[in-house]
Amino acid sequence: MSEQTAIGKIDEALGDRAARAGPANFAAGEALIQPSLNRISVHGRVAQVEPKVMQVLILMAERPGTVISRETFLETVWAGTIADDYLLNRAVSELRKIFDDDPQAPRYIETIRKGGYRLIAPIAPAKVAAAVARPAADGSASERSAPEGSAPEGSAPEGSAPEGSAPEGSAAAAPQAGAQPAGATSPPATFRVFPSRPALYGLAAACAVAAATVVFLLRPSTPSGASGIAESYDVLPLTSFVGREFEPALSPDGSRVAFIWDGGTGGAFDVYVKTIGSEDVLNLTDSSADERYPVWSADGRSVLFARSDDTGTAIMRVSALGGGVTRVFGDDAAADIRGMSLSPDGTRIAYAGRRNATSPYRIFLAALDTGEKRTVSNPEPGSLGDIDPRFSRDGQSVAFVRAVNEVTKDVYRATLDGGEPTRLTFDNRKINGLAWSPGGERLLFTSTRSGMYGLWSADPDGGDLQQVFLGNENVHQPATAAGVDAIAFEQWTHRSQLRRIDLVRRTQADAGQYIQSTRWDSNPAWSPDSERIAIVSNRGGPHSIWVSQRDGRGAVQIANFGGAFIDNPAWSPDGSLIAFDGSPEGNTAIFTVSPEGGKPRKISDGPGDSRNPAWSRDGAWIYFESNRSGQWRIYAQPVAGGAAIAVTAGPGINARESADGQRLFYSKPGERGLWQRPRQDWRDGIARGSEELLIAALQPQDGANWAPAPDGVYFVHRPAEGTPTLSLLDRADSSTTDILALSPSFEGWGFDLSPDGTQLIYSELTMQESDLRLAVPR
């Protein structure tokens, strides 16, 4: 047996085992449901039900608030048998008896005449109390009396875990010493989920009202416009958790949202599901690998998501109520993916994958039953590629975002029968999210085409762009469901502030109250006389180049492109010009502008992108990195005019000359180390002298976190153990001296040393929060 066949059989076995595990415990209203035990507990009473009865309940719980037809019950629960309405009626009647539910005034199961049944009780993760009783004062077990047939208050049912414990299957959930051995039997324990019955009824009523209100708002309907886009919206909070919640996905009935969250810990990203109108969330996955891009199955019973690791990318499936995770498709050739979509009939997946960090993303189409895949798009080499595919409502085409780079993107559409994709927008702006409108007749996308991130709609056949006003300047990753009159999206609260290090006192401090703002400030650059600072900021709206005094006073905007990407200011040695990069015409290019303002002048030509300018010490050259050859290399542009000259034969980024102008320093994309080569007159186009590794300890994420100094190079050092430090490499003897400890979670960039060598200024990410919002027609 080959290794590949063996791995396939193992995956198949694990998938079967995961599928047999069934959904995890959950709460329905006041009841605890334990599917694996066929057990329902309500108010201290425990009922053991037949498997078919539990399957009827689970079928409704997987789509709360949705009417399940009698035919669906019979075809799903009693598949392959001869069944009739009597069996279904008996199962529903038994459930109502357990729930003490009145069919005339239901709190759990509502009968829909000539339709079927629907579960109206709010669904939430199971909540239980501590499983171990407190010991008595003498050290013996507590003998506190309890009502007949129930366990002491504070106990939990067999098979459940204490509130706040690790999810089932995690290492933290392993049995403790003295725990009951596997396979041991005992009478079913009972418990109280909530503290008291009056409080419980109040909470249940509130949840029911909230859920009913939102379900009414999000009920499948005929939207006000044929496309499903309303004239105005009310924006409601969907999540407000600590940490980052992103990539929302509305369930087909609009009652729930699946999303990605780091749990507020900054750890791995997992898949969660939240019922709209309730604050309870259900954690569906618990993996050391990041999970991404959740999508709902067509029936709303399960969620698919992507998981990438060293072996490639896999598409996984998990029940919307939790439980075992099943692998449904794998692509060993895809190092990672950037968005995916499930076809309306649930048979195919469209995803954006790439082989490695230097190849572009392509859209692939894969059949989930056979695993067969084919390529849908072929973007230009050297570009970021095609991302965020979205199936049309009829499943005949895929819309996606074609990205020159992270800041220059447009919307395209491709039919699945072959042919070249059709370009729908010509903005060359940032785009962060794509969805079809609820009616399926228009495309929704977020863009900086008006300066700030906003929501726009486009005709899928081209032209006719319209803004969708949500009253929010930070709209990202819109999500919709067919026929559900609502739009879920991410709202970001990201902040970058300037930091300063006093190299004489070796202390770290804020850059100053006048430099800081509540917006995004980054990539500071000292003027040659140390009296002014240039930064990139969105304090005035779109990202722009600003110049201020060294303490931040008198800040003035000197260059912007109306929302197009702009970044990386660099002063000329004589202080007369500031070079920067921007993308007003699509590809990123190098520009210069006077520090007093004026019209920017483009100085770089050629294909591909050019970014991150740096001046030579004599002011004769501007270095920059470009991917015009298919990989990122360092080029030198003569300021007096002429063609750019390739400085490195291989990869290179973040070029700067040494303080004495004798050497050129640079890093490499995705690689460790800082490199150097002799500085020369590049005019003859021949790069003489070989490159040498200068700092082996520089990590890939710190490729821009260094600054040349007269006596060496300051850089961020991340030891195998301990916190990151600012260190100085001594040029004379190659020794390293630690200058200052940085924060344990340091994430900064744009280091620049003051001309007098006393201060180091840089930008640091100080806040990275994202919450989910829900826009409903006003």
What is shown here, in short?
The protein is built from 5 helices and 54 strands.
Please provide a written account of the structure.
With 778 residues, the protein is mainly beta. It contains five helices and 54 strands. Strands 9, 30, 31, 32, 53 and 54 form a six-stranded antiparallel β-sheet that branches. A five-stranded antiparallel β-sheet has the order 4-3-2-1-8, with no helix packed on it. Helix 2 packs across helix 4 (85-99). The protein is elongated, with a radius of gyration of 30 Å. It starts with a helix and ends with a strand. The model is unreliable at 1-21 and 127-224 (pLDDT under 50).
Describe this protein with a few key phrases:
disordered N terminus; 10% helix; single chain; 5-stranded antiparallel beta sheet; 778 residues; 6-stranded antiparallel beta sheet; elongated; mainly beta
Task: Describe how the helices and strands are arranged.
Elements: H1 3-21, E1 26-28, E2 31-34, E3 39-42, E4 45-48, H2 51-61, E5 68-69, H3 70-77, H4 85-99, E6 109-112, E7 116-119, E8 123-125, H5 197-217, E9 233-237, E10 245-250, E11 256-261, E12 270-275, E13 281-283, E14 291-296, E15 302-309, E16 312-319, E17 325-331, E18 336-342, E19 348-354, E20 362-367, E21 373-375, E22 385-391, E23 397-405, E24 408-415, E25 422-423, E26 431-436, E27 443-447, E28 454-458, E29 466-468, E30 475-479, E31 487-502, E32 507-510, E33 521-526, E34 532-537, E35 544-549, E36 556-560, E37 566-571, E38 578-582, E39 589-593, E40 601-602, E41 610-615, E42 621-626, E43 633-638, E44 645-646, E45 653-657, E46 663-667, E47 674-678, E48 692-695, E49 706-709, E50 712-717, E51 725-730, E52 736-741, E53 748-753, E54 759-777
Antiparallel strand pairs: 1-2, 1-8, 2-3, 3-4, 5-7, 6-7, 9-54, 10-11, 11-12, 12-13, 14-15, 15-16, 16-17, 18-19, 19-20, 20-21, 22-23, 23-24, 24-25, 26-27, 27-28, 28-29, 30-31, 31-32, 31-54, 33-34, 34-35, 35-36, 37-38, 38-39, 39-40, 41-42, 42-43, 43-44, 45-46, 46-47, 47-48, 49-50, 50-51, 51-52, ...
Helix pairs in contact: 2-4
